[in-house]
């Protein structure tokens, strides 16, 4: 081992310890708990994969898994599209650009529970802002969270509002690394605006897009606070995400089944991340 | 190199650097903001009297969140909180989990007079394997609040049956909406949470139904229950006398403020709302009456048994001090104060004969009658799992997503599975 590598090792060590203690150990711990019958009011005993078999047959779990996947897909798509547009605009030079960039980031700076609470107050049936405006213009009141579709769209909107700025800022950083010369060459070759975006911009910022996708997808799969605050999983359990589902089991005192659900969520998130990295050919692009 | 070593040491220091604080007696209390504020005052009195420092752990209003903030430390065998209030519905789980300190020796040592507490309540929920593991602080049950002024104005009498409610509202709702488009006939708790189960149990019991029969069989999917559930759903969708957000947002506080703002004729709520409805600045002050909840034609008045009980943590390091505080809370003086200031129904029977209480709390008689008609939720360690299923399907049914008979069939199946899974 040469000196350089040895020093690098020491620099990484503190981070390594943190990752081990704060990330890897909890995952292993959860997995360990999921192999037991750990219910607060029952005797503790080894259950092997029993909890996983139970999970496979749990209709409600699959319903919440389905909801979580659709929710993640919809909100991440919306965030990526809106985030790209905002990033492209903010990348142009115009007056007050610095201020605009700051303002755009605001929703991301708000703690997510508070952001969710704001949206809850907008959606409230009796004194919510949305119905206040609607009553003023048409005299109608809509129970936004009362139907499955309404609750779904309301959640997507609330979630995207908060996280789009994050996507926009990451992509903006990527955009600034695109050499201006490439655009000029493309222009000379007669490429129009869309061609320049898809043939020049996108390939260059692809690694950044993948990073944003990974962050956002993992976050969306774990979604908890927005749903907990706005719908509480209703109506009729339709908007119960996997995290909320596992939380409910912790509350009920069945820690092993709650952990099993969490481990399953971890596997889904991990798989999707691997797929992204493969699809983005991250290694080549980064080099 | 040496600097790097230092860095590692510092980062390790983060994990070992927990400071040792003087441990205080910790008491976890939640509830409506005015309730928690009042507890703070009572705790102050206790501190002055007994020279025991108490840390009040303020919990939220929401029952599920209060429970979560207890389950987590107790399962981790934490020393705090030492003393806490529990909803009636959790006691079986907490006891079966071994989280509660049996109180028999304390009771014997201080010759604490159990006969002063409501015996039937203690007997139903505070005993586990023959030992006293908690004590009631106050007793709750569902009540019907109504607008005296409006019933008088339109010449309606206090409703006895659910049909009476429909008849009353039919006349009043349309008239009142001319001035207040936001006016609804009847508000109750329909959001997907524990309160929905309390409401559901009242509706079904007032139609002769139940969740579990005496032999312990699950009887959710019965004709009586389907009929009652259909009625709950009709209140929102067919008769439209309950607001459309009943099944999404209506919890205790939402219902209370809705009624308090003068937007409803009838309200189903717990006794705590009385004091707030009649407080200064309340638009319905002096216009509110209470009665037993209505029944179906061939049923009976039914009110869910609620209320909060106090227990000492098995892991507490301040068990003696906790017992002192517990005794203080159950003393005549404090129970009377809780009754007069928060309109909580004391767990002590002797308060009900107190002349001052009788004079100032006019509805004491109605409450006594309501207590005689209480129904309790199934008392088992896995009740919460049962409740979870009920919440989901009852909410789905009243939201109109699935038919009541379908909902109860699914609920029955789900609960049977839970019994199979968790029954020891």
Topology of helices and strands:
The complex is a heterodimer of chains A (287) and B (424).
Chain A: H1 3-34, E1 36-37, E2 45-46, H2 50-56, H3 59-91, H4 97-109, H5 112-123, H6 129-138, H7 148-175, H8 180-188, H9 193-221, H10 225-230, H11 242-252, H12 255-279, H13 282-286
Antiparallel strand pairs in A: 1-2
Helix pairs in contact in A: 1-12, 3-7, 3-9, 4-7, 5-7, 7-9, 9-12, 11-12
Chain B: H1 2-16, E1 25-29, H2 33-50, E2 54-58, H3 63-75, E3 83-87, H4 91-96, H5 104-109, H6 119-126, E4 127-128, E5 131-132, E6 135-141, E7 143-147, H7 148-153, H8 162-177, E8 184-187, H9 194-205, H10 223-237, H11 252-260, E9 264-269, H12 272-277, E10 288-291, E11 303-312, H13 319-329, H14 332-342, E12 345-346, H15 355-360, H16 364-372, E13 374-375, H17 383-398, H18 404-422
Parallel strand pairs in B: 1-2, 1-3, 8-9, 11-13
Antiparallel strand pairs in B: 3-11, 4-5, 6-11, 6-12, 7-9, 7-10
Helix pairs in contact in B: 9-10, 9-17, 17-18
General description of the model:
The complex is a heterodimer of chains A (287) and B (424). Chain A has helices spanning 3-34, 50-56, 59-91, 97-109, 112-123, 129-138, 148-175, 180-188, 193-221, 225-230, 242-252, 255-279, 282-286; strands spanning 36-37, 45-46. Chain A is globular. Helix content of chain A is 77%, strand content 1%. Chain A is an all-alpha fold and 287 residues long. The longest helix of chain A is centred in the first third of the chain and has 33 residues, at 59-91. Chain A has a single domain, classed as MetI-like fold (Orthogonal Bundle). By secondary structure, chain B is of the alpha/beta class. Chain B has two domains: 23-140 and 306-369, 3-Layer(aba) Sandwich (D-Maltodextrin-Binding Protein, domain 2), CATH 3.40.190; 143-304 and 377-422, Periplasmic binding protein-like II (D-Maltodextrin-Binding Protein, domain 2), CATH 3.40.190. Chain B contains 18 helices and 13 strands. In chain B, strands 1, 2, 3, 6, 11, 12 and 13 form a seven-stranded mixed sheet that branches. A four-stranded mixed sheet of chain B has the order 8-9-7-10. Chain B has a two-stranded antiparallel ribbon with strand order 4-5. In chain B, strand 4 and strand 5 form a beta hairpin. In chain B, helix 9 packs across helix 10 (223-237). The model of chain B is unreliable at 12-20 (pLDDT under 50). The chains are: A mainly alpha (287), B alpha/beta (424). At the A-B interface, helix 1 and helix 11 of A face helix 1, helix 3 and helix 17 of B.
């Amino acid at each position: 081992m040469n000196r350089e590598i040895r020093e690098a090792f020491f620099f990484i060590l503190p981070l390594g310890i943190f990752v081990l203690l704060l990330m890897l150990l909890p995952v292993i711990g959860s997995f360990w708990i999921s192999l037991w019958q750990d219910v607060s009011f029952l005797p503790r005993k080894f259950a092997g994969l029993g909890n996983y078999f139970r999970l496979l047959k749990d209709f409600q779990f699959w319903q919440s898994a389905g909801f979580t996947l659709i929710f993640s897909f919809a909100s991440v798509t919306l965030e990526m599209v809106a985030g790209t547009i905002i990033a492209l605009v903010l990348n142009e030079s115009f007056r007050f650009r610095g201020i605009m960039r700051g303002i755009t980031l605001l929703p991301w700076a708000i703690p997510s529970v508070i952001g969710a609470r704001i949206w809850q107050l907008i959606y409230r049936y009796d004194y919510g802002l949305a119905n206040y405006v609607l009553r003023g213009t048409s005299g109608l009141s809509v129970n936004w969270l009362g139907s499955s579709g309404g609750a779904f769209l309301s959640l997507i909107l609330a979630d995207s509002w908060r996280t789009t700025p994050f996507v926009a800022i990451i992509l903006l950083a990527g955009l600034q690394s695109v050499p201006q010369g490439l655009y000029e060459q493309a222009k000379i070759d007669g490429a129009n605006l869309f061609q320049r975006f898809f043939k020049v911009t996108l390939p260059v910022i692809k690694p950044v897009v993948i990073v944003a996708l990974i962050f956002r997808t993992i976050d969306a799969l774990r979604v908890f606070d927005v749903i907990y605050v706005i719908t509480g999983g209703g109506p009729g359990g339709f908007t119960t995400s996997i995290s909320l589902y596992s939380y409910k089991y912790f509350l009920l005192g069945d820690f092993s089944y709650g952990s099993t659900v969490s481990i399953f969520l971890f596997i889904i998130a991990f798989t999707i991340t691997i797929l992204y990295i493969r699809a983005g050919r991250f290694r080549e692009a980064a080099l | 190199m040496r600097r790097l070593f230092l860095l590692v040491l510092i980062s390790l220091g983060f994990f070992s650097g927990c400071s040792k604080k003087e441990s205080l007696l910790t008491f976890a209390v939640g509830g409506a903001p005015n309730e928690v504020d009042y507890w703070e005052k009572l705790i102050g009195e206790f501190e002055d009297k007994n020279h025991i420092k108490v840390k009040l752990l303020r919990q939220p209003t929401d029952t599920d969140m209060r429970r979560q903030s207890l389950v987590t430390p107790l399962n981790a065998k934490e020393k705090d909180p030492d003393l806490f209030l529990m909803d009636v519905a959790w006691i079986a789980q907490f006891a079966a989990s071994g989280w509660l300190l049996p109180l028999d020796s304390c009771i014997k040592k201080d010759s604490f007079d159990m006969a002063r507490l409501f015996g039937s309540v203690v007997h139903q929920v505070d005993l586990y394997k023959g030992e006293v593991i908690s004590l009631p602080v106050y007793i709750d049950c569902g009540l019907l609040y109504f607008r005296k002024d409006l019933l008088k104005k339109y010449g309606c009498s206090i409703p006895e049956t659910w049909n009476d409610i429909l008849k009353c509202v039919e006349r009043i709702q349309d008239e009142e909406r001319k001035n207040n488009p936001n006016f609804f006939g009847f508000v109750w708790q329909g959001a997907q949470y524990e309160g929905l189960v309390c409401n559901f149990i009242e509706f079904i019991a007032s139609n002769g139904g139940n969740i579990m029969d005496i032999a312990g069989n699950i009887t959710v999917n019965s004709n009586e229950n389907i009929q009652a559930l259909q009625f709950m759903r009709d209140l929102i969708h067919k008769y439209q006398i309950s607001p459309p957000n009943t099944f999404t947002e209506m919890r205790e506080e939402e219902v209370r403020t809705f009624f308090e703002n003068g937007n409803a004729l009838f309200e189903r709520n717990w006794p705590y709302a009385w004091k707030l409805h009649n407080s200064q600045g309340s638009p319905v002050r002096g216009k509110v009456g209470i009665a037993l909840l209505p029944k179906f034609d061939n049923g009976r008045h039914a009110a869910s048994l609620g209320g909060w009980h106090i227990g000492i943590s098995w892991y507490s390091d301040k068990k003696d001090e906790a017992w002192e505080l517990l005794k203080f809370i159950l003393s005549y003086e404090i129970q009377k104060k809780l009754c007069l200031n928060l309109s909580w129904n004391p767990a002590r029977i002797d308060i009900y004969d107190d002349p001052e209480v009788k004079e100032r709390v006019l509805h004491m008689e109605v409450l006594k009658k309501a207590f005689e008609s209480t129904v309790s939720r199934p008392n088992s360690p896995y009740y919460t799992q049962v409740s979870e299923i009920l919440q989901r399907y009852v909410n789905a049914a009243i939201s109109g997503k699935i038919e009541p008979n379908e909902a109860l069939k699914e609920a029955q199946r789900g609960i049977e599975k839970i019994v199979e899974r968790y029954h020891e």
